[in-house]
Design brief:
The complex is a heterotrimer of chains A (about 190), B (about 500) and C (about 1050).
Chain A lengths: L10 E10 L2 H13 L5 E4 L7 H5 L6 H27 L15 H28 L22 E6 L7 H10 L4 E8 L2
Antiparallel strand pairs in A: 1-3, 1-4, 2-3
Helix pairs in contact in A: 3-4
Chain B lengths: L11 H4 L5 H14 L4 H27 L14 H25 L9 H22 L25 H34 L3 H11 L6 H34 L11 H27 L8 H32 L2 H13 L3 H13 L7 H4 L2 H27 L15 H24 L5 H6 L25 H4 L13
Helix pairs in contact in B: 3-15, 4-5, 4-8, 4-9, 4-14, 5-6, 5-9, 5-15, 6-7, 6-8, 8-9, 9-10, 9-14, 10-11, 11-12, 12-14
Chain C lengths: L30 H22 L27 E9 L2 E10 L2 E7 L12 H10 L9 E2 L2 E2 L2 H15 L7 E5 L5 H13 L4 E4 L6 H11 L3 E5 L6 E5 L10 H11 L11 E6 L4 H5 L2 E4 L2 H17 L7 H7 L8 H12 L4 E5 L5 H14 L6 E5 L8 H13 L5 E5 L3 H4 L6 H6 L3 E6 L4 H5 L2 E4 L8 E4 L5 E4 L12 H9 L8 H16 L2 E2 L13 E2 L12 H11 L17 H7 L11 E7 L12 H4 L8 E2 L4 E3 L1 H7 L6 E6 L2 E9 L7 E6 L28 E9 L8 E2 L14 E3 H6 L3 H5 L30 E6 L8 H10 L6 H6 L7 E7 L12 E7 L8 H5 L5 E3 L5 E3 L9 H4 L7 E2 L4 H4 L10 H6 L12 E2 L5 H13 L12 H5 L5 E5 L6 H6 L4 E2 L11 E4 L1 E3 L7
Parallel strand pairs in C: 6-7, 6-14, 9-10, 9-12, 10-11, 14-15, 15-16, 21-26, 23-25, 29-40, 30-39
Antiparallel strand pairs in C: 1-2, 2-3, 4-5, 4-16, 8-13, 17-18, 19-20, 21-27, 22-28, 24-25, 24-27, 30-37, 31-32, 33-34, 35-36, 38-39
The chains are: A alpha+beta (about 190), B mainly alpha (about 500), C alpha/beta (about 1050).
């Protein structure tokens, strides 16, 4: 939570939150908002709703590229580590076998593979957090009490105040039009 | 500032009867972590933690005196320690398999058990990792196996299968943990939002990372989950293959066998499924989850057990055939004499009968769907699989090339205590998990409900029928990608 | 603390005078060398006292200097070597003892000594542990209570004083047979003071029968020397001449020399052995007949007759014919053997074991004479003490005297008669009735307990002395360390008793006087002026004229003798001929031992490990696997499978063995090759007061022994007691080789046809590796300083190995190998780096059957595979190859996964499951005693719990030799580096060296046609090569 502002600080709407009872409603509401040309808005659902991405007009996730990068790092890292340690820095005679690559490549396979997997796993999880800007423990929508149902059985659409097309009345009207169970304006202190 | 609607009304969420099917799911699963624990839980927990205590005692004594307190000897330098390690790792496999592979194949019935299975993977791998840690002669320098700079400026030997193991099992554990945690995040958010006390909210909130169900998040989240599933699938197959290489790359008759990697993987999945079933049946009865974990799920698992049992049986047969076919006198002496007729013939029988013979009962539906039967069989299979590893490790080592060096392995009480102790640790962790975390993925279950489909109008406010929660989606929703889920009547 | 004259001379270090050509005493030592050697003991003593503390200061005070100024010849870490000698039964073995900063740590043989020739047996190797035995007596005791030497001297002195008037009629001394000229001189001095006193001799294991046989046949007791290397046929009648009989070390060397095969054309001697129980000798034999000890005499007489048939006229033919009894003997063993002996006149030997009665020994002398072997392969030498009587009779005389109240004072020097005296003499009871009895012994044992006084006896390695070998060679026994526990030697005690009549008081003076007399005699000088302090002598030559005008430099020869370890060598063998009719009389007068009603016979043999029980507290020996049974920490009543069936017993069952009123209860062990109806019990077990680890192991055989049945007793009754089975521990539980190609052997005929039988029977040529081979020549290791061309390798000749176990103990001593105790051995955790695999073969070609198998011994240590399976699997690079082809262990890197040991096809790796040194046999007695720590080799890491270890080819020896060569700016010489096992091997079965050099002995051996690589088919490319065993079987025996 942000530090309390002085009593004289005025309050202004930061986000407008609309609650829906069914995936059907929220999906259509999302389409409406998207067509209305809003950009800084989002849908909140207890589970991924099928077709919502299209409804919101989202581009495909870029996560895959991040993971590829991590995977390649893991692969090359593993090779460099093994070849440098056993082949260059401190070679030893082990079972009369060659010390470094290419001779040792066969014996490198398992670790090459495992480290590739390990790095891609971290890539996908950390990448996901990065793209989602998580963890983020405070967000205007949390100011709403009803929003707690967003992780249970209710569906929400939030439109942020700094969206170019944002206008409290118009936006609220549009959302109520889209069968919102109720619409809530969340204000926060601005200095 | 509060909304005009009284906040009290929100508490219906967990005070009155669930208002919607979705909420019913939330309630049904979340309540376990919110209500007081049933007596059954406490009984199990005390039992399990007692065994965990035994483990602590045994290992303390082990560290105090040395590995000699076990029965390991020459030529049987590895015995129960590595047997337990392989056994536990194997058990872990079913978890990843269920959550990853079945996810990729869009087997929606997995949603009932995948969280379980993943948790089981993690706890089993923890138990497994204990053994390589404590079985070494000088545990205090165990870090030599990691590529860390040290005063000897010496590096690990990357040609050693044991080192491959370190990386494989280490990776496996880390990835499973990430996979599991990623899956938990939305559910943690749910628990956060349902929490009545501040601390509950803070703790769950901390781990929920501020998840707010944003669809822009869901998009990346789903992709991440898919990728994790995709890389876990080859991983789970690789791990036991690498473990099997500890033996396959050696020169010892009975170890030096090219069939090991697939053979070990099959065995791992076999024992893993058996263990999942054991645990599932316990949880199901303790927490009354009959409406989440259905007979259909159990029957499917039994079919899977039958399949893997046949695979394992094939591997056994092939080992014998190759020993005879190779004409190598050491191989023949081992497989045709020492194993079935040597000093450990009884262990060999314990391996063959539970793993190959008993599961054949599952050809009959009456057996597949009989809870007591499947509970007993699931345990028998795990005993059998433990003996498989015992036979592979001990009865291969006890008689190798030079008859002068032949010897017997005789376990000590500490051996038994250590092993029993890890079982205690496993169940302790598991019971804590069932108590404090949603043991079925609420998000995924909801996602498979008819209400989740935006293309049908949902208006069943308050409607509450006792029909299974997860069951009907099988009929209602065709899986994305058009393929009908396996076993959907 | 008694006053002593200062010692003018010190022990001389043999390696302080490197320029001595070994085996020659005429080249003078460099003054510097002697100087060094003088200071040698200074440092030694100083260090010793630093370790032991001033408690043992009996050596002159002024010599005890603190170790502040280091004597220049004592470089810490560089050991010095001293020559000395130890008594082994009737023989003396010359030794070279390695000493680190004053701590003797390792025993080796002295190449200059005829009974050692550079080798030692397992007892010699283990004797260093006897010196450091933590349970040695530390103080005189009166009635068990600690007392002082002064008290003792006062009391005994006073008592002796009273004897002077009646010439000591009531004084008796009991001591083991001695081969020390000085001890005998002192004994005579005692006799001069007390003419009526008597000195009796007793030892549980003695050569009395042989002496009496020689006396009967040749007129005087003589030592018989056998030239096995020149013999073509050797028949051993119940004689374990390779292990337990006197002179076994030399016998091994010579026999191996006579059987060494360089090519299929070479000839080898043929060894027949007739014996009741399996021994190293029997296992080595080409033909072995298992025959009850009681029937062997009969066989010998029958054989004599058979020889006559084949034209060998033997004295006492008639008597022999009368005594012949060969019912139980396969006819071939008469006809074929007799023929073989007759065909090899002049090159045939008939050995008779000390267990057999004198007449058989006498007969052997007759046979040798008839075969013309005397002078060629059989020679005679004077014994050290012609006055020595048959020990049994002598001890009986003593006990009778005690019974007749004729003994007031009995002084027992060494030995342990209360434990090992024949049961029928009731020695303990009689001893109790002696008013004043004194026992001088290393530890406070069974006998000390029963005596009114006990005094600590100095160990051979801490006191001056001398000993005469079988062939008459005399050597000086040098103290290598000041007495640890204030003990005194027999010489001192006898000198004290002889009082004024003692020619010298200080043992050094006495020994030196003896030696110098011999030296002068050796130079044909006599009638010398008495020994004087300057170490010189005025001498006259034989004719009585002054020998030149010079003072003969005794000091020089004396010091040379010390350095070389040989004082005096006899001039050639002693001539002897048969006393007419002597053998016949001996045979006719033979006493047949008492025959009981029972169906069985029991044979008593000195245990190869415990001997007569004196080594019962020696952990190395306790844990040494017995050659025949592979049992450790125990002996057992050995039965043949047939007898076991007959008695309805199996391994571990208890039986009660009764001979008249004497009986013993022991657990049985079934041994194929044991004679049916004969039970073997080795002596020396079941001690009650041996020490902290030595008590109550195995079964005491002495209660069955009687004066008329020292060797064996026939007609005993054996009954199963039905007690719970005894718990035995074995190091090798499986004796069949399962027809695996691992220990190759063939008959000489087969070998001639198929010289490379070992490889043909063995593995196919291995496939080439897929990768480029590492070139060991240029060292790929980061910091290999000088690229080395050496490539170490070893060969083990199975044809020479007799399984005598000396190498095993040598390895333990050299490499600080821990002892783990019976229970851990039972688990399979013994730590021996070098083990001797023993396989049974029942091939008819070897004249073997399942119940009477042919035995092959195969020493197995790390073979240092070039493609070592252990290295591939070590996760932490703790075991890797060195540039010289050694498979090396980095103990401080090892984390103890034990994967390497699993993957070792030879199972030669050993794991420290516990902290063996402190957590095994010494667990309950506060860990490894300090004295035993003093034995440990400072050049070898003492391994801690949790690490893997194995044979290192004695890498510490390799390195020190390389350093030495480098400092002397020269190349290493072949044979300069010798591993501990190789150095001690009496049969020269083990050869180590550089397989890269064309000329080295090991390279030549690896090219012999008998070579094979153990399990080489696995592609391990072992650096140790084995040479197949060849059995010179007699076609006519088939």
């Amino acid at each position: 939570m942000e530090p309390r502002q002085s009593r004289r600080s005025r309050r202004a709407p930061s986000v407008i939150l609309a609650e829906f009872v069914s995936t059907h409603d929220v999906l259509h509401a999302a389409e409406a908002v998207h067509q209305a040309g809003y950009v800084r808005w989002d849908a909140h659902t207890p589970f991924p709703v099928h077709g919502m991405d299209r409804a919101m007009g989202l581009r495909d996730s870029r996560l895959g590229w991040i993971v590829i990068a991590f995977a390649l790092t893991g692969l090359t890292g593993a090779f460099v580590m093994m070849h440098w340690m056993n082949g260059i820095d401190y070679p030893t005679i082990v079972g009369d076998k060659p010390a470094g690559a290419p001779g040792t490549l066969p014996s490198m396979v398992p670790i090459l593979f495992e480290l590739t997997i390990l790095f891609s796993a971290f890539g996908s999880v950390l990448g996901m957090f990065g793209l989602n800007r998580l963890p983020r423990h405070h967000h205007p929508v949390f100011a709403s009490d009803r929003f707690r149902l967003a992780s249970d059985d209710r569906f929400f659409i939030s439109i942020e105040a700094d969206d170019p097309k944002f206008d409290v009345e118009k936006t609220r009207a549009m959302l109520e039009e889209a069968h919102a169970l109720n619409v809530e304006v969340i204000e926060e202190d601005v200095s | 500032m509060a909304y005009w609607k009284p906040i009290a009304e929100l508490d219906e969420a967990h005070l009155v009867k669930p208002a919607s099917k979705l909420r019913e799911v939330t309630h049904e699963i979340a309540r376990v972590t919110e209500n007081r624990a049933p007596r059954g839980w406490w009984i199990c927990f005390l039992l399990a933690s007692t065994f965990a205590g035994i483990f602590v005692v045994c290992v303390s004594y082990l560290f105090y005196r040395g590995v000699g307190v076990w029965g390991n000897t020459s030529p049987v330098y590895w015995a129960w320690d590595i047997t337990n390690f392989v056994w536990w790792v194997g058990i872990g496999h079913a978890g990843t398999l269920i959550s990853a592979i079945l996810f990729i194949f869009r087997q929606k019935w997995r949603t009932a058990i995948n969280r379980f299975a993943e948790a089981m993977t993690i706890f089993a791998v923890i138990c497994a990792l204990i053994f390589p840690g404590i079985h070494v002669g000088r545990p205090w320098v165990l870090f030599y196996v990691f590529p860390l700079p040290n005063q000897m400026t010496l590096w690990p030997n990357f040609k050693s299968p044991l080192l491959w193991d370190v990386f494989a099992v280490g990776t496996y554990f880390t990835v499973s943990l990430l996979f599991w945690y990623t899956g938990l995040i939305p559910d943690l958010a749910t628990l956060r939002d349902r929490s009545l006390t501040k601390w509950r909210q803070r703790i769950y909130g901390f781990f929920a990372l501020g998840w707010r169900g944003s669809n822009r998040h869901w998009q990346n989240y789903e992709r991440a989950y898919l990728i994790l599933a995709a890389i876990s699938t080859p991983l789970v197959l690789s791990v036991h293959s690498v473990v099997s290489m500890d033996f396959a790359t050696s020169v010892i008759p009975g170890w030096h066998t090219t069939i090991f990697p697939p053979y070990f993987v099959a065995g791992a999945i076999f024992s893993g499924f058996a263990m999942v079933e054991t645990v599932l049946l316990i949880a199901r009865s303790v927490f009354k989850l009959h409406r989440v974990i259905l007979m259909r799920h159990l029957e499917l698992m039994n079919k899977f057990l039958l399949l893997t049992s046949l695979l394992v049986g094939y591997a056994y047969a092939m080992e014998f055939f190759m020993a005879w076919y190779s004409g190598n006198q050491y191989e023949m002496a081992h497989f045709l004499q020492n194993r079935p007729m040597g000093p450990y013939y009884w262990a060999w029988l314990w391996m063959v009968i539970p793993n190959c013979v008993i599961p054949q009962l599952y050809w009959f539906k009456r057996m597949r769907t009989n809870i007591p039967v499947m509970f007993v069989i699931s345990i028998v299979i795990n005993i059998g699989m433990w003996f498989e590893r015992f036979v592979i490790i001990v009865s291969s080592l006890n008689r190798d090339f030079l008859p002068s060096a032949w010897g017997l392995f005789r376990p000590t009480i500490i051996d038994v205590g250590t092993f029993a102790g890890t079982i205690g640790i496993f169940f302790t962790l598991f019971l804590l998990f069932m108590r404090w975390l949603p043991m079925v993925s609420m998000t995924e279950v909801k996602g498979t409900l008819p209400q989740a489909d935006p293309h049908m109008k949902a208006a069943d406010e308050g409607a509450h029928d006792p029909s299974p929660i997860v069951g009907e989606q099988q009929t209602a929703v065709a899986a994305p990608g058009g393929l009908v889920p396996e076993g959907a009547e | 603390m008694s006053k002593r004259a200062p010692n003018p001379a010190r022990p001389a270090a043999i390696d302080a005078a490197p320029e001595f050509p070994k085996g020659h005493v005429d080249t003078p030592p460099s003054e510097e060398a002697l100087l060094l050697s003088r200071r040698g003991l200074l440092g030694a003593m100083a260090a010793t006292f630093a370790v032991v503390g001033a408690e043992g200061c009996r050596r002159p005070i002024e010599k005890i200097v603190p170790y502040t100024k280091m004597p220049e010849d004592v470089i810490p870490g560089v050991p010095s070597h001293y020559a000395t000698v130890m008594q082994r039964r009737g023989d003396a073995i010359g030794l070279v003892v390695e000493s680190h900063e004053g701590r003797p740590t390792k025993i080796e043989g002295n190449e200059a000594h005829p009974s050692s020739l550079g080798a030692v047996d397992l007892i010699g190797q283990a004797s260093i542990l006897e010196l450091y035995d933590p349970d040695r007596s530390t103080t005189p005791r009166k009635g068990g209570a600690p007392a002082s030497w002064d008290d003792f001297e006062h009391e005994l002195g006073a008592k002796l004083g009273t004897f002077d008037k009646d010439q000591g009629a009531k004084l008796r001394v009991l001591m083991p047979p001695s081969i020390s000229p000085t001890v005998l001189r002192m004994r005579d001095a005692l006799a001069q003071r007390f003419p009526k006193a008597r000195v009796h001799t007793w030892s549980a294991v003695a050569d009395s029968n042989a002496r009496m046989g020689a006396k009967a046949a040749l007129g005087e007791p003589l030592n018989t020397l056998y030239a096995y290397e020149k013999a073509r046929v050797i028949l051993a009648l119940d004689s374990d001449f390779l292990q337990t009989e006197s002179g076994s070390v030399r016998a091994n060397k010579a026999l191996a020399a006579g059987r060494r095969l360089r090519s299929a054309k070479d000839a080898m001697s043929r060894l027949y052995v007739v014996e009741p129980a399996r021994t190293a000798t029997g296992d080595t034999a080409d033909h072995r007949l298992r025959l009850a000890a009681g029937d062997i005499a009969g066989y010998a007489f029958a054989l004599a007759g058979e020889l006559a048939k084949s034209g060998v006229a033997i004295d006492a033919q008639g008597s022999a014919a009368k005594a012949a009894a060969s019912a139980k003997v396969p006819p071939k063993w008469l006809t074929a053997v007799a023929k073989d002996l007759a065909q090899n006149r002049g090159h045939a030997i008939v050995m008779v074991g000390s267990r057999q009665p004198p007449e058989v020994h006498a007969l052997a002398h007759a046979i040798h004479a008839a075969l013309g072997s005397v002078g060629t392969v059989v020679n005679y030498a004077a014994v050290a003490d012609p006055a020595e009587l048959d020990v049994a009779t002598d001890l009986k005389a003593l006990t009778d005297a005690i019974a007749a109240k004729q003994v007031e004072t009995l002084v027992i020097l060494g030995g342990n008669p209360v434990y090992d005296a024949p049961a029928d003499l009731a020695f303990p009871e009689k001893l109790a009735s002696v008013p004043l009895s004194v026992h001088a012994s290393l530890s406070f044992d069974e006998t000390s307990e029963k005596c009114s006084w006990h005094v600590p006896r100095a160990h051979e390695y801490e006191s001056w002395g001398d000993a005469q070998a079988l062939d008459g060679t005399v050597s000086v026994q040098q103290p290598l360390i000041a007495p640890l526990y204030d003990g005194r030697s027999d010489i001192e005690l006898l000198a004290f008793m002889a009082g004024p009549r003692a020619p010298q008081k200080a043992p050094l003076d006495a020994v030196r006087a003896t030696a110098q007399a011999l030296i002068l005699a050796g130079h044909g000088l006599s009638g010398c002026a008495p020994f004087d302090e300057r170490g010189d002598a005025e001498c006259k030559d034989a004719t009585g004229n002054p020998a030149g005008a010079h003072e003969y430099e005794l000091d020089r020869d004396w010091n040379r003798a010390l350095a070389m370890g040989v004082v005096h060598r006899p001039q050639g063998p002693k001539a002897a001929s048969l006393v007419p009719n002597g053998v016949a009389q001996a045979i006719d007068a033979r006493k047949v031992g008492p025959k009981g009603s029972g169906a069985f016979e029991v044979t008593f043999a000195p245990c190869p490990k415990m001997v007569d029980g004196r080594y019962a507290n020696n952990t190395w020996l306790l844990e040494l696997p017995d050659g025949a049974t592979k049992l450790v920490w125990d002996n057992a009543a050995l039965l043949s499978p047939e007898s076991a069936k007959q008695l309805g017993v199996e391994k571990g069952d208890f039986v009660k063995i009764a001979a008249g009123d004497r009986s013993v209860t022991a657990a049985v062990w079934v041994v194929p090759g044991q004679a049916d109806g004969s039970i073997a019990l080795t002596l020396g077990w079941g001690r009650k007061k041996a020490g902290r680890v030595g008590n109550d192991h195995g079964f005491d055989a002495y209660p069955l022994r009687a004066t008329d049945a020292l060797g064996f007793v026939s007609g005993v009754t054996v009954t199963k007691t039905g007690d719970e089975q005894y718990f035995f521990a074995q190091t090798q539980e499986h004796s069949s080789s399962e027809n695996r190609p691992i220990a190759h052997q063939a008959t000489l005929a087969e070998y001639r046809v198929k010289p490379n039988f070992a490889e043909l029977d063995g593995p196919p040529p291995r496939a080439l590796p897929l990768w480029s081979q590492a070139d060991y020549g240029e060292a790929p290791v980061k910091d290999a300083h000088a690229p080395s061309g050496h490539q170490w390798g070893m060969t083990v000749d199975l044809n020479a190995c007799t399984g005598c176990n000396a190498c095993v103990i040598a390895c333990m001593a050299e490499n600080n190998v821990p002892v783990v105790g019976k229970r851990e051995v039972w688990r399979g955790r013994e730590m021996h780096w070098l083990r001797i695999d023993r396989y049974y073969a029942d091939r008819a070609e070897f004249g073997a059957s399942a119940d009477d198998p042919a035995v092959i011994n195969e020493p197995v240590m790390c073979v240092h595979c070039e493609e070592a399976p252990c290295e591939n699997v070590c996760p932490v690079n703790a075991t890797t190859h060195g540039p010289e082809g050694l498979n090396e262990m980095a103990y401080n890197r090892c984390i103890g996964t034990r994967y390497c040991a699993n993957n070792c096809p030879y199972k030669v790796r050993r794991f420290n499951y516990l902290n063996w040194h402190n957590d095994a046999v010494f667990k309950d007695t506060g860990g490894l005693p300090e004295t035993l720590q003093m034995q440990q080799n400072p050049n070898v890491t003492v391994r801690f719990r949790g690490v893997m270890e194995k044979c290192s080819y004695c890498v510490q020896r390799i390195q020190s030799s390389k350093i030495k060569a480098k400092r002397e700016l020269r190349e290493l010489k072949d044979g300069e580096i010798r591993t501990a096992c190789q150095q001690t091997c009496p049969a020269d079965a083990i050869v180590f060296g550089d397989v890269n050099s064309e000329s080295s002995a090991v390279t030549r051996l690896t090219r012999l046609d008998r070579r094979f690589g153990l399990l080489a088919e696995l592609g391990t490319r072992p650096r140790t090569t084995y040479l197949g065993k060849v059995r010179n079987t007699n076609p006519e025996m088939a």
